[in-house]
Amino acid sequence: MNFEFMRTLHGFINFIQVLFGFAALFACSFIWRDTDLYFQFIYKYFGWQSVILAILFFTWIFAVMVFLSNLFDKDVVGTIGKYKLLILYVICLVCLIISASLESWYISRSGTNGKYPDPVYHPRFIAVTIFNWLLVVSYIVLILVTFFFV
C-alpha cells in the first residue's frame, strides 16, 4: 500500500473528495421522516434531484477509483496520462457545477417562501449544496495541482 500518496497534496485532496462525495450522497439520498428511513431516487416537485444524485454517484465512484488506484501503487497519471486525467477532472468539474447549481436553485424552491416548501428536504438541499460547492472547489484545486505539479 502506498501511504506516501496520502502525504501528497494530490492524495489529500482526493481523499477529501471521497469524503465530501460520500457526505453529499448520504444527504441527497437517505431520507428519514419520524421513524421511517428510506432511500429516495425521485422527489415530488424536484425532478432534477435524480440527475443530481446520478452526478454525485458517478463523480464519487471516479474519486474512489483514483484514490484506491493510487493507494495500491497504481499511478493513475502514469497509467492513463496527465492530459487524459485532466480531461476527466474537467468533466467531473462541469458535472458538479451543474449539480451544485441545480441544488442551489432547489434551496429557493423548498424554503418557507418557496414554491414547494418542505421542512424535510430544505435542510438536505442546503447540506448537499454546501458539499457540492466544496467538491467544485476541490476539483478546481486538483486540476491546478495536477497541471502544474504532477
Largest sheet: 2 strands, antiparallel
Strands of the largest sheet, in order across it?
A: 1-2
Number of structural units classed as domains: 1
**Could you say which overall geometry the principal axes of the C-alpha atoms support?**
elongated
Radius of gyration using CA atoms only: 17 Å
Sheet-strand content, in percent, reads 5-15%
- Can you give the mean pLDDT? 90
User: Could you estimate the helical fraction of the residues in percent?
Assistant: over 70%
Q: Which stretches of 5+ consecutive residues score pLDDT under 50?
A: none
Q: Could you give the distance between the termini?
A: 20 Å
Along the chain, the helix and strand elements come as: HHEEHHHH
- Helix vs. strand class: mainly alpha
Query: What's the tally of helices?
Result: 6
Q: Tally of extended strands?
A: 2
Summed up:
With 150 residues, the protein is mainly alpha-helical. It has one domain.
State the main characteristics:
74% helix, membrane, 2 strands, mainly alpha, transmembrane, elongated, single chain, MARVEL domain-containing protein, two-stranded antiparallel ribbon
What is the topology?
Elements: H1 4-7, H2 9-29, E1 30-33, E2 36-39, H3 49-71, H4 76-80, H5 82-110, H6 121-149
Antiparallel strand pairs: 1-2
Helix pairs in contact: 2-3, 2-6, 3-5, 5-6
